[in-house]
Amino acid sequence: MKRRWQGDRRPAQANTSSTQAHSDPIPPAKIKFETSSDVDTDDSEGEQASESAITMKEPEPKRARFDQGAPRTPSQPQLSSPNTATPRWAPSQPRASFKDPRNVVPHIPHIVTPVPLPHRPASPRVAPTSNNQHQFPQARSRHYAPNNKNERRPYNPPTPQNHSRFDQLPDADRPDPSLYSQVGDNASRQTLFQRANQRGQFIQAHMQRIQQVIMKEKEVNERLATAKKESEQQKQELEQLRKQHEEDKQSLQNQLDEQTAFGKDMQTRKNNILAKKRLHKKDAEELRGETATLQEKLKASEDEIASLKKSITQTKKLNADLGVEKRAFKDKKLELKQTVNELTQEQTELKQKVDTMSRVKGELEAKIGSQERFISFVLNGRSVEDVEREMTESYRKQVRDALRPIASHSSPRAPKPESS
Hints:
Blueprint: H1 12-23, H2 44-54, H3 109-112, H4 186-321, H5 326-379, H6 384-409
Region (Disordered): 1-183, 224-253, 395-420
C-alpha cells in the first residue's frame, strides 16, 4: 500500500539532501554536445530553422504529475493516488512564488521540456482533461491509467508501439522522474549529463534533418527559377510566332486584295468585250440589210439584162426583116451596146461591192467567232456571277491553305483566317 504525502513531516536527512541538491547547481561545463560536420553552420536559414525547431515549447502547464510507479527512496515525497486531490507541491502557480525550495523539482529543460518533432503533430494521444495532464505526456508513467471518469476507454498504457511521442525516441531518451530525488549523487549527476548529451545528439540530428529540408527547398527554388526562365522563353517564342502570324496574315490579306482587284479588272474587260460584241452585232445587221438591198438591185439588173437580150434578138429579127431600118437599128444597137457596157460595168462594180461586203462580213464573223470563243472559254458555259464566285472561293481556299500551318502554332484565341 502506498504512503500518502504528509505535508512537511519528513526526516531531517531528506531535508539536508534536498537543500544540498538545490544549493549545489549542476556545472554547465560538463554538459557537452557533439557537433556534426554535415551541418552547415554558415547558412543563416539553417540556423534560423534549427533555432525555431529547438526553441519551440508547449504552454506552461498548470499542473504536472510525474511517475508514480517507479521505486522511490525515503527522501522522495510520495505522490497521492490518481483518484485523490492534487499534492500540495505541484506547480499550480509560477515557480518563483514557492517559499520552501525543498519542494521545487529541479528544472532540466533537455529532459522535461517536450520538443515536438517537425513531422509529428504536437497534440498528444489522450484527449484534454480537467487537470491538463495531456500537456506533459512524457512525464506520465508507462502504467498510467486515466483518472477522468468521462474518458470511457480501456486501460492502455503508452508504449513505443501505440504512443506517438515515444515512437521516434530511444529508450535512453525517455525521461525517468525517479532521478529527480537523487540530484545530489554523483552517479545520478553523471546520468543526467549523459541524458543531456543524448538530448543534444537528438537535437543535432533534428538540425541535420532541418538542414536537409533547407537544401531540398533550395533545390526546389532553383528548379522553380529554371522553370520560370523556360516559361519566359516560351512566352517570347509565342510572341514572335504571333507577330509572324500577323505579318503573314497581312501579306495574305494584301494578296487577297490584289486578286480581288484583278477580278474586278477582268470583269470590266469582259463588260467591254460584251459591249463591243453588241456593236459588232449591230454593224453585222446593218451590213446584212445593205447586202439584201444590193442583191435586190443585182436581181433587177439581171432582169433588165435579160430584157435587153430579148430586145436585141427582136432587133436582129427586125433587122433581118427590115433592112431599110438597119442603120437606124445599128445606131440603136450601138447605143444599146453602150448601155449594156455601162450596165456590165455597173454590174461588175456591184459584184466587187458584193465581194467586198462578203469579205467584210467574213472578217466580222471571224472576229465575232473569236470573241465568242474567248467569252465561252472564260465563262465555260457558266454565268458571270458563277465565275466570280468560283474565283473568290479559289482565292479564299489558297489563303486558308497558306494560313493553316501558321494557325496550328498560334494560340487558340487567335482570329481564324476565314473571318478575314
